[in-house]
Amino acid sequence: MPSLFRSISNGSGFPLQELQTLPFEGWKKALCSAVEAGAHLSSLSLLPNQKLLAVLSDSPNHRVLVGVTEVGKSYPSLVPDCPQTQLFEREIFEQYGIEPIGHPWLKPVRSPLEMANADQFYKVEGEEVHEVAVGPVHAGVIEPGHFRFQCHGETVLHLEIALGYQHRGIEEALKHGPDLRTPHYMETLAGDSSIAHATAYSRLIESMKQAEIPPRAEAIRAIAAELERLANHVGDLGALSGDVGFLPTMSYCGRLRGDLLNLTALLCGNRFGRGLVRPGGVRFNLSSDKIQTIKTRLNAVETDVHSAIKLLFNTPSVLARFEDTGIVSPSTAKQIGMVGPAARASGMDYDVRRHLGYGVYNDLKIQLPRETRGDCLARAQVRSHEIAESFRIIQQLLDELPEGAISIDLPNQLEPNLIGVALVEGWRGEICHVASTDAQGRFSHYKVIDPSFHNWFGLALALRNEEISDFPLCNKSFNLSYCGHDL
Amino acid sequence: MFDILRERIKQKHRTMDWPDGPPPELPPDFAGVPTIQPHCPDGCTACVQACPVQALEIPKTPDMGVRLDLAKCIFCRACETACPEHKIRFGKEFKTASLSREGLLVSAEKTLPRSVLLEQANKLFGRSLKLRQVSAGGCNACEADINVLGTLAWDMGRFGIQLVASPRHADGLIVTGPVTQNMKEALKQTYAAIPDPKIVIAVGACACSGGLFANHSEQCNGVDSIIPVDLYVPGCPPHPLSILDALLRFVGRIDNSRLLSIGE
Q1: A167 with B218: Cβ contact below 8 A
Q2: Selected residues 88-127 of chain B with any CB under 8 Å from a CB in chain A
Q3: Which pLDDT tens digit goes with each residue over A137-159?
Q4: Are residues A254 and A401 in the same domain?
Q5: Eight-class DSSP state of B99
Q6: How far, CA to CA in Å, does A182 sit from each of A151, A445, B47?
Q7: CATH of B119-250, one of 3.40.50.12280, 3.30.950.10, 3.30.365.10, 3.30.450.40
Q8: For A97-131, what is each residue's pLDDT tens digit?
Q9: Residues A91 and A30 in one domain
Q10: B170 Cβ under 8 Å from any chain A Cβ
Q11: Residue A252 above 90 pLDDT?
């Protein structure tokens, strides 16, 4: 379907002036109808020239759509027509004071103290209704966030999540870059997704410079990305087992997660892949010795992972706790714009690797397992399918690793007045980086959307009518990033 | 039931021998404690220019070589690559901790302190140390490498060290992150909720100094700007081995007088 929006491929850089400013009504209509037809709002941000920039991933048509409009001090909120916009509009209001008139609930995004002081939380009142407040400091080793439950007995009527405790000011610090710190900021946006964010950033720079990196670099990036996915999925399945008191799989997966992180460390010396991915390629090569070591160790890990997971899914007491717990229906998931494994557990068919292919994923046939129940079991199953697929991908890439260089020389200097968009599939789902440069070729705007930004609201909805004691289980089934949201 | 037992046998015993046996193998490109050589070439500032976190300083007398603040260092090795005369080399040494911020300043003349034993910690917590973890802007990497110490490969419970759910149950805090403005109050309150005597451990470059986020107005440049810190474990993130080693030496569970393990 033709759209008023400009159609680009994933990983594009082009002059800002080529992006025609649309009248607000036309822009809004194009956005809403694209979302209606199956596209997903990946990013909505304010450009330095006070224009609103929407980036849509039109997965059914394998393309990315971008469109800008002018809004002034206020504009009619898109939320009633397109609920996916709710958090974006709140963010823009919080950062720039541009008001979306008619937004159903214009509360802060990253000002949790303000939320608490003004007691802005939604309240349910009535006999025997009570409120439970949890956080920001939690019982486990986990990042801070505040959860406010409205309960009737054990049943959660409503959960509200207040974040922002992790706000470190990264987007602000990225302005006027790229500089020495930029790649390190990328690797700490969400520390468990270092590879994914560093890859999104590198692809953004490469597309803004119209550069192609060597195939061997692409393959090593993908190996690292799949190892990152494996480590987190395996660790989370273990943690899910722990949350329902099934200790065997918890113990095994905890150890296996460490083994997978150690494989990443074998690639580059750091368990989280810090320093591996940079614009232009990768910084560490894979010697044939290393390849052999990785293969041997990966095989051993794979055997142990599969049988540890099998144990989990063959245990009736585990299934009883997972099944029908924390349901997000397919229609809800689509409406609020969920991404990643959580969305694929609610029937959505979208994976950046497959639908908006990049790097080696253009050529790899990725099997995309989906579930439709939308409960904790489905989220665990999707993770389990993805684990199998990631093992297969890594083995294939190691077997067919292209020869040649691992990087090209790519100076930091960018062309002035450019805009760039790059999306990758992190282990939590779609990661979208959008940047524009000023007249000097420095970043005038750098927008990072971590998958957690899309999915936190899904967790809040999953808790409705659940028992409050199932919150840890539901939370872990999503395992969202606090700092990735707070930036 | 039989499946569980069979799987238990198959997955084997996995707890490492260290500290009684050798430490687990570190990756070939592991960046441990750097060694610094004196006599920089006149006027050379290549390492200082390359450092993304301003961790390096050239003293007035360049003959002494550079001074590196490991509290700030993110172990990215940019200085190592930049130095035309290879005066800075990151070795395999994983023992990185210090009882003071100053102890983390290393140069050709001054290495990391050999001992991080705190007598009082040894007396009070040598056989049982319960810690409450607070992430105050940590990116989840330090958190993950603390968490992993509870898994059966590391099993820090065998030393009587445990992460507990409430500050009321804890002997101290293990803090990650630069301490964001939004977490400042929560950190103070958690600290206040721990009964005296108590200890505080800062893990990671952010917690030690603000790290990559130092001087951002949204954070506080590290834990010791808010509450007193007894033990610093630098790194981005520190390897789990560095964290566990620091904890064990701090409470005297392993011998501090033993020579540092062999560097390169």
Answers
A1: yes
A2: none
A3: 998 899 999 999 999 999 999 99
A4: yes
A5: S
A6: 44, 13, 18
A7: 3.40.50.12280
A8: 999 999 999 999 998 888 888 788 899 999 899 99
A9: yes
A10: no
A11: yes
